[in-house]
């Protein structure tokens, strides 16, 4: 049994990416999953002067240790204007400053959603290209389109049958690939 750390890249209290990652974690049956909120690890906006003056916060070190303790990660990234949110980019920037290869050996299931038909695909691709730089490996990814039409908040499930089957397939493949 592997230990999976899961989170959304959003700081919104009504994040649809948090809803999606929460649903995804409920589908994991073969491994231990811990779902966290990145907002529990507040970080100031990165800048070299701030880094020199303040160093690395206890919250950043705690988050890094949580990532290091996990065997694999599940991440759902949001999209703002065609890219990852400033909030999530800031988290990645700080983590890479304290330890550039902060994802060393981590297998990652990366997903995204939005209310639009592209499902956060641009943000997903950006983060997907960045993860290997930090020694992580994206082994599965999924872009979930039109969240409001395809996901029921009251039932906490995907209501589009084709998307549901594809999503479950991705989750099962991820579970299988990290088991070895």
UniProtKB/TrEMBL annotation:
What GO cellular component is one of the record's annotations?
Answer: cytosol
Q: Which InterPro entries match?
A: Flavoprotein-like_sf, FMN_Rdtase-like_dom, NAD(P)H-dep_reductase
What Pfam families does the annotation carry? FMN_red (PF03358)
| A molecular function (GO) term | FMN binding
The residues covered by the NADPH-dependent FMN reductase-like domain are: 3-132
- The highest taxon in the source lineage is Bacteria
Q: What is this protein called?
A: NADPH-dependent FMN reductase-like domain-containing protein
**Which organism's genome codes for this protein?**
Planktosalinus lacus
């Amino acid at each position: 049994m592997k230990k999976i750390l899961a989170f959304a890249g959003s700081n919104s209290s009504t994040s649809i990416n948090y809803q999606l990652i929460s649903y995804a974690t409920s589908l994991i049956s073969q491994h231990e999953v811990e779902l966290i909120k990145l907002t529990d690890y507040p970080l100031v906006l990165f800048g070299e002067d701030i880094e020199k003056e303040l160093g690395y916060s206890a919250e950043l070190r705690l988050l890094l240790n949580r990532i290091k303790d996990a065997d694999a990660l599940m991440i759902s990234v949001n999209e703002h204007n065609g890219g990852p949110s400033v909030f999530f980019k800031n988290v990645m920037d700080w983590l890479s400053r304290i330890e550039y290869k902060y994802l060393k050996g981590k297998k990652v299931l990366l997903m995204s959603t939005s209310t639009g038909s592209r499902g956060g695909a641009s943000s997903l691709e950006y983060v997907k290209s960045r993860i290997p730089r930090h020694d992580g490996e994206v082994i599965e990814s999924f872009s979930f389109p039109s969240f409001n039409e395809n996901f029921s908040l009251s039932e906490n499930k995907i209501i589009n049958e084709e998307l549901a089957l594809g999503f479950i397939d991705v989750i099962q493949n991820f579970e299988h690939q990290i088991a070895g």
